[in-house]
Structures are given as C-alpha cells and as structure tokens.
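Action item from last week, closing it out:
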Amino acid sequence: MITMDNIIDDKNPMIREISKEVELPLSAEDEQLAKDMMEYLINSQDEELSKKYDLRPGVGLAAVQVGVLKRMCAIYIPYYDQDGNLKNLDQWVLVNPKIVAYTPKISYVASGEGCLSVPVDHKGYVPRHAKVVVEAYDALTKQNVKITARGFTAICIQHEMDHFDGVLYYDRFQKDDPTRPIPNAMVIQ
C-alpha cells in the first residue's frame, strides 16, 4: 500500500527528471503500480482511512511521485450533487497519455492547485487549458481511450502530465504576480 512515506517531495531531484514511455502490454509490475496508485487516491479521499494512515487527500498521482520514472498517472475525481450523492466519477490510470487537442480558452482553480509532492503550499494561479482531448491506454479498463476532459478534470490531467516532464504547478505561476487573476480565464471553484 502506498502511503505518504512513499511519495517523494519537491526537494528530491527525481521529481524534476523526465519520465519514460511505458512498454505495452503492461508488465505485472506496472499493473501493480497502476492498482497501487489508484488505491492511494481512493484511500486518501476516505476520511477514516486517510486519518488512519495519515494520507494527504489527492485526486491525481503520477508514477514519478512514487519514485518510478514512467509516463503513468492515476486520476480519481468523484463529483457529488448538492445532496452529497455521487453523480459522476472520473477515474483512469493513464499510460503514455498525449494531449491531441485542446481549447485555447484558459482556466484555473480559484483556490490554487496543490500537489502531494509539495508539502509547503505555494499560492498562485496556474493557467491551464479549459478543455483537453487525451489519448492513452487506461490500465483500469485495459483498453485505449480517448477522453474529452473539461474544467477541473482537464486541469488535473494536465497537472499530472506535467510531472512526466519534471514540471511542478508553481513553475507555471505568472512570475511577476502569481495571485493576479488571469484575464478572460474560466475560474474553477
């Protein structure tokens, strides 16, 4: 089971390295990594398990964050209605994902982004595409997928894919004023 002890932070030079393409079909080792990353995200969002194992909640996790330089990331984003009922669940373990199309419209998260590998929060807005189309192999369904992601899900996918190239969210801040609202951007609450 992955815990916070397995997640490297931004002081570890490996977080800045370039991840390699993953060979398909997945090896048994890569399939296990996919399951373990997804399990971390699910457990981290469970109040009881999160507290028991001291897990920071997350919606995405890239393999490099657990010390594996492979282009693989898990995404687990449940969406709830106003009554607390699950209305949609975006979940994949994306292998070798590529953005094949995107909208020029920019979006950002109003509260700023966070990262399991960044223990000290950095304040600022991260400009991201409001909509992306991603092609990848999904280790959960064991098939190639084409995902059209919008809003928060699109932001999460772009955040995780940045990890493949050694980029952290605060690298994308506006240098002169990280907390200045981005003009004409879609703000995700």
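Closing note: DSSP finds three helices and eight strands in the chain.
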